[in-house]
Design goal:
single chain; alpha+beta; two-stranded antiparallel sheet; 6 helices; 8 strands; about 25% helix; disordered N terminus
Length: about 270
Amino acid sequence: MSAPRDDTSSDESADDGSRGDTAASPSGSNDGLGPDAQSGSRSDAPAARSNGPPGPRSDGGEPSDTGPIELIGRFRRSDHGAVVFVRELLSSAAIVVAIGLLLFAASGVWPPMVAIESGSMEPQMYKGDLVFVMEEGRLAPDIAHADTGIVTYRAGAEAGYSKFNNPGDVIIYTQNGDPGRTPIIHRAMFWVESGENWYDEANKQYLRADNCGELANCPAPHAGFITKGDNNGEYDQARRISTVVKPDWVRGTAEVRIPWLGWVRLYFSGAA
């Protein structure tokens, strides 16, 4: 971002250039001068202010302009190695921030990108992938459950709606509603009501129990989603990864996967 250089002289600089003449008595020819001037007394008429370039400073140096606009201009034009490095670094940071703000405006959630830390969603997502997340209520289809904005695997299979090659939405949620724990990114399988025996409606392929009594989080302690990683053999609630996922624990739905770019974030977070 640039600003034009201000080459216009300030009143203060112009005043400095003519200040020494205003206090001195005229010398040399006294043609056209009144008696008072000829006798050496000061004239009462004010000296005219010069409209030309500023004169020299009283200490003999050149006038300087160190205002913010001039400093910014020097910073932009400098070829010094350190200045060039800082300038490029700031430019890159500004671009990253601008992209982040645009993604936030589009997604409605922050951060709008999450990095995959495990292989539980393979082959749809791999560790090190970067995934764009959108607020679940945005662009929600009519088959979304109630006002949650989320389409379950079961509803998606019936309506032909899929995300990442399988029916239903992939959601990002906090484990047991604890914001201090690492969020989980798994698929919403089906919805259960509070106190419901969801063993009877679950796919027994993803259970290691013979009845509701042997199953964790059954009957359902509250209404919410039963979830599962595409690469996992059991539901999250059966594995005690999380209890039934409440709608307000959901941070958004996964929309786009970008391979490999998540490794940078995982490296700095220590999860690589």
